[in-house]
Specification:
Layout (H helix, E strand, L loop, with lengths): L11 H7 L13 E2 L2 E2 L10 E5 L2 E4 H19 L10 H28 L6 H11 L10 H8 L1 H14 L2 H8 L9 H37 L4 H8 L10 E4 L7 H9 L5 E7 L2 E14 L9 E12 L10 H26 L2 E3 L23 E3 L4
Antiparallel strand pairs: 1-2, 3-4, 3-9, 5-8, 6-7, 7-8, 9-10
Helix pairs in contact: 1-3, 2-3, 2-6, 5-6, 7-11, 8-9
Length: 383
């Protein structure tokens, strides 16, 4: 599990990392409180390091959150909850800033939901839990048994986070004042019609591009110089002089080209091929053998093709979609837009204070000018 599924659009991690790392525009490399630079490791467990809309979070609260997130990551990886933290080197470097973003995010979500009396129905809560439990790699477990495995404090926090994340859809519903989540038959028909129009335009454009290459082939077969025809018809005229030299494995992403090269004679000209970057007519300018690197059998030699081509654009057509596929696509898109709206609304009313300074994870790397006053309060995300 990368992180909790709700409100990934908040961008809180980026906001918080801005307060945990140097920034030329907003602050010096280190953050001083009074006359002393502070790190999380310098604080006592009862010290309040964060205040969200008046709610205090101590270092002890933070340490529980760090432990819970680490155990959650281990559980999702199928690892034991104790012992060496096997894949954790890269994760551990950022575990504290990531945990801080989760602490802040959950606090804001819970406070907003409580203030506006928003809650998840039993069906919504159970639905979220049913998607979460399989990710924890604890077959046959219940939410309570998983929480018990975490331990008392971490288990209690885990349950609290699950309750917060189950609010994702209720919060989106709360902000859906225009009922955009109520997808109608007219909505589905409109999307279906757009797909049809797109398919028609793409097909018409591709027909024009193919016709141009067909005229080029006629001229080439009539004896015209390949490079001169390319200047006339190619979207990239230099292709007609020299496209490049390739080993077979270097063009493997284009099966049609590979299949033709394996059968073509030297100096051959292909028909119209659909490649990954469009339509092409390809000519073999030269074909040679290349010795393998030292240490490999000199009897084995690789073929190298020197190619030129005439290229034109190719427009991919949209796939047909069933009614249910269109409904899901619309639902995903509208939920994403509402999620952004939720995040913006919650952040706009946030009052975030850093009693011990915002740069709690990185020691200052250069001398800095100490602020004349203690930074205490920032609105809208701690910037």
């Amino acid at each position: 599990m990368k992180k909790s599924v709700a409100f990934s659009g908040f961008a809180l991690l980026a906001l918080l990392l801005a307060g945990c790392a140097p920034s030329d525009e907003t602050r010096a490399p280190g953050e001083y409180v009074g006359e002393t630079e502070r790190l999380m490791s310098d604080l006592a467990k009862k010290d309040v390091f964060l205040r969200v809309n008046g709610k205090n979070f101590t270092k002890a609260d933070f340490l529980v959150a760090v432990s819970m997130q680490d155990k959650l990551r281990r559980m999702c990886a199928g690892d034991p909850l104790t012992g060496p933290n096997k894949p954790a080197k890269e994760y551990s470097i950022w575990s504290q800033p990531r945990t801080l973003s989760e602490v802040l995010r959950h606090a804001l979500v819970r406070q907003f939901a409580e203030e506006h009396k928003i809650s998840a129905t039993k069906e919504e809560f159970d639905g979220y839990v049913n998607t979460l439990l399989p990710k924890l790699r604890r077959k046959g477990r219940t939410l309570k048994s998983v929480a018990d495995e975490f331990g008392r404090d971490e288990g209690r926090l885990f349950i609290s986070y699950v309750e917060d994340d189950a609010l994702a859809q209720p919060l989106r519903n709360y902000f859906d004042t225009d009922h955009t989540l109520d997808i109608t038959d007219d909505d589905v028909i409109a999307v279906s019609n757009r797909i049809i129009r797109f398919q028609e335009r793409a097909a018409a454009s591709n027909a024009v591009e193919r016709a141009a290459l067909e005229r080029a082939l006629v001229e080439i077969k009539g004896g015209a110089d390949f490079s001169e025809v390319a200047k006339k018809y190619s979207a990239t005229p230099n292709d007609g002089e020299e496209w490049g030299e390739y080993l077979l494995e270097e063009v493997s992403e284009n099966p049609a080209l590979v299949a033709w090269l394996q059968k073509a004679d030297p100096n051959a000209v292909s028909g119209i091929l659909v490649l990954d970057d469009g339509l092409s007519i390809v000519k073999i300018v030269d074909l040679r053998h290349e010795d393998l690197p030292e240490g490999q059998s000199s009897a084995e030699r690789r073929l190298v093709w020197k190619l030129a081509r005439i290229s034109r654009p190719f427009f991919e057509t949209a796939d047909d979609m069933t009614h249910d596929e269109i409904v899901k696509m619309l639902s995903d898109y509208r939920n994403k837009k509402l999620q952004e709206k939720v995040g913006k609304a919650i952040m706009e009313r946030a009052v975030i204070e850093w009693p011990c300074g915002t740069n709690l994870f990185r020691r200052a790397t250069a001398p800095v000018k100490k602020p004349s006053s203690t930074p205490s309060e920032t609105k809208g995300g701690g910037k």
